[in-house]
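Figure 6 in text form: structure in, sequence out.
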């Protein structure tokens, strides 16, 4: 979880505490008003739990200030514009998540990214379906996968748009990851070798034996040095502060220094493809 997010959640908690104390209510009294356990009040006030919109409405009503619900929801919206939990995002389906990413994709001219699987913009339909299905199972949201795949693949049109650039990095281990069947992975590696020659693409593969300046971490995409979308198991972080963008550029540069490109990258991909035939 990002430090900025923690600070924003604590600030929201401080405002909730302020409303409670102004109303002259104890933790137990407000808990009784809302029908909650007292521990929930404490967690919300101390920034240990993220409030929902319904929680904020109940809080405002419980302290006798229903008009403050709009202010509290505004604070929550600002918080969630940075930190977007997968559970909440996927409540609207996979297509909604992919469409939101697609909107940013259309705005972006220069992409820099690092991924632990084949990047979505290079994925075959079958590989994309396997990736989304695995993560859907993880979060318990298995509907809408077909629509999510369709939306994800639509972003590949950008590969053929003059002026766009894709400077993407991936670890060699991603070429061997059996997140799908061997047949699907073989087709995906064939696809990867074909896009590696596009004029809009600069694909870097970080060999397993490469000397690296930093260890690879979570996946991230840098959009035109104005926005970073970083992924973790539980959430996406949408970061647009100059300091955050500069940090991820520094990380990307460090990872990039250990990558090989062009024919060297092609040879590594081809070697992974040959290993499937030998298996």
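Output sequence:
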């Amino acid at each position: 979880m990002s430090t900025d997010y923690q600070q924003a959640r604590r600030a929201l908690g401080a405002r909730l505490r302020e409303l409670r104390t102004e109303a002259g209510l104890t933790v137990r009294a407000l808990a009784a008003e809302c029908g909650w356990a007292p521990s929930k009040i404490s967690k919300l006030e101390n920034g240990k739990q993220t409030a929902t919109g319904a929680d904020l409405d109940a809080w405002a009503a419980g302290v006798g200030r229903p008009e403050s619900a709009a202010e509290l929801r505004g604070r929550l919206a600002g918080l969630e514009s940075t930190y977007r939990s997968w559970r909440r995002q996927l409540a609207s389906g996979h297509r909604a998540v992919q469409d939101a990413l697609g909107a940013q994709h259309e705005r972006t001219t220069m992409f820099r990214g690092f991924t632990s699987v084949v990047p979505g913009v290079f994925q075959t339909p079958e590989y994309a379906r396997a990736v989304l299905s695995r993560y859907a199972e993880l979060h318990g949201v298995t509907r809408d996968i077909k629509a999510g795949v369709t939306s994800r693949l639509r972003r590949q049109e950008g590969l053929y748009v003059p002026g766009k650039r894709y400077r993407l990095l991936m670890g060699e281990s991603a070429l061997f990851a059996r997140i799908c069947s061997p047949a699907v992975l073989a087709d995906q590696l064939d696809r990867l070798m074909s896009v590696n020659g596009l004029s809009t693409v600069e694909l870097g593969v970080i060999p397993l034996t490469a000397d690296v300046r930093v260890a690879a971490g979570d996946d991230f995409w840098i959009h035109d040095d104005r926005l970073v979308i970083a992924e973790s198991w539980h959430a996406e972080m949408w970061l647009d502060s100059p300091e955050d963008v500069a940090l991820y550029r520094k990380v990307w540069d460090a990872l990039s220094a250990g990558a090989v490109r062009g024919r060297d990258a092609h040879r590594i991909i081809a070697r992974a493809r040959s290993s499937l035939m030998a298996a």
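Caption detail: The first helix runs from residue 3 to 22.
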